[in-house]
Amino acid sequence: MKKIFLSSLILILTITAAHAFDVRDNYDIIVAGAGTGGISAAIQAASMGAYVLVVEPSPMLGGQAIAAGVANMDDLSTTSSRSGIYADFISRVDEYYSARGKSIGTSYWDPRNLAFEPHVGRKILQDMARGEDAPDILYNSEIVGVGKDEVISVTGDSVSEAPRINSVIVKTPEGMKSITCKVLIDATEYGDILPLAGADYRAGNSITPSINPNAMIQDITWTAIIRKYPEGIPEHLKPKSPLPGYDAARVNYSNYVAKGGFTFKGEYPVILPVDFITHNAYRGLPDSFTPGYFDADRENWRNISKCSVNWGNDFPGQQKFGDKYGMPVYYLEDRAARKRLERDALIKTLHFIYYIQNELGESWSVDENEYGDLQEAAKDLPDEWKVIARHLPPVPYVRESRRGVGEKTLTSRELFENSLSYKDGRKGSEFQDSIAIGCYHLDLHHTDVDADMESDLGEKASFILEHRPHGNFQVPMNILLPRNVDGLILAEKNLSMSRLVAGALRLQPITMMTGQAAGALAAIAVSQNIQPRNVKAIHVQNALLDAGVKLSLCEYSDVPPTNKHYKAIQLANLYGLLEPEKLPEMVSYDVGYDITSVLDNPEVAKEIAEGKDKGRFGVDEPLNDADRKSLVDRVKKLTGTEISLPEKITRGDAVELAVKAL
What we know:
Oligomer: single chain
Strand content: 15-25%
Number of helices: 18
């Protein structure tokens, strides 16, 4: 498909961006937010032939991973579970640093983890979003209104009476612009489209229409990228006077990192305060501008010259709002309050810059190679602090947004049971409409008591440990679909899920995966001229499999990704088409609350090395009579039709025919 090319060339690291009045008046798909979920949705949808516009409030893409500076990938999975756009992104990051003799395994005290510099990740994402069928992107712009049709639509046997989104109003630096669309994807960091669209949503433990502004959500963090200056900190990066409130901040930071603090020895829980070297190795980053090699092996910690500040500077952190930890929901609901609280979060991080220079005596400050534009939140600071602040990320790291309410709301118990698939001799408990695979724990930064949980969903604080996923889990497609508005798809941290599940699905790898799925779903809805809720999951799954996304939790030693039947057998797992010859033999493991990788469990690492995490499908074995009957019956149950199979056929070829029937 030939697209319009726009001629707005700006900064060397900034993708060609559309001016408000150069963009089309109509698009197939509009994506609100160019974060990890939004840009992935846009790339996928555009690759499938849709005209896509991305509207991003900040001056850059990448959301929490780049614009918010969380460039250490919170990825607890093994390499085999990385797929799709996320795997492509990581591969490009690794290629970039490998060519420069650098490692990306620089964080979390473990070289198996992944990290990159924000300016590198930004450039790579921009490259991924370029091309003839690339999305258009409006920066420094925001959707402020949503237009809807009040319609009843009929598709086959499905009747939809929900209002249908048909347009948006975009506020840009050049003025307001109305743009029509067929599908709108909410990939904002706050879930800001949900109230504009009139969609039901949750905020904290409350739900529309009775949103409680004093319910609590997780802390936010305004991160910083800091680096070592071996020849001494440049004077302009060394403020002479602390900002108001520093004394309280100094006490807070002394509880996390201090002179004479503990060195992390590889055993959890981490003993606080840690020494500065341990602090830097926690969120160490590769350093393109300093010669030499280092990774996160212990002997290299002293060589780490660049890191992200995302520890001890959570806001409000140990402070409270009234008698509660965390952020009040009015942070999401009240724009004036949001602006005020984010300024406080930025200042808290600036206190840390002063702390490490003046209390720890370290020759570190912000990295002038990152960012460069002064944030609105810093514009009333003293001049000496503006110089520092302009090298902080342009936006804060927001861990918890509004969450849409779908026909299905995913709970921690369901996620936990799904993660137990193929362990301890179990069969699969896979989600038939799986559209992504993740691996993280139920991680809440404060607001982790019973009073903060959704009682209507049966969630409890004790489930943080009791329902901690045991390895990889799937994300079902139905939680991307709001129940009362058509033409709207959820992406990023606003899926239909409980707060505990959101604690596992809010991280960069999984938001890229769910974003990619949202883009595929939107593109298929447009191409079939139906509403997203009427798209069959298998059509989305087929598009994702074609894009290299892994969807099943079960792997087979005789069906590697290069096998011609690999995609069909993933679908066979999801839809229960044919039992494998042998299931995986993995134990049911819990990697521990603070352990950073499933491989940190020695028993798990040994079993993976022995191949026990893989079963055997028997892909090239002949289909016997019992399996033939089972397969034909299963397809008839799913489709209402009976398939005909040749007398002699392999199990792999039989599955291919069955999948085509679906």
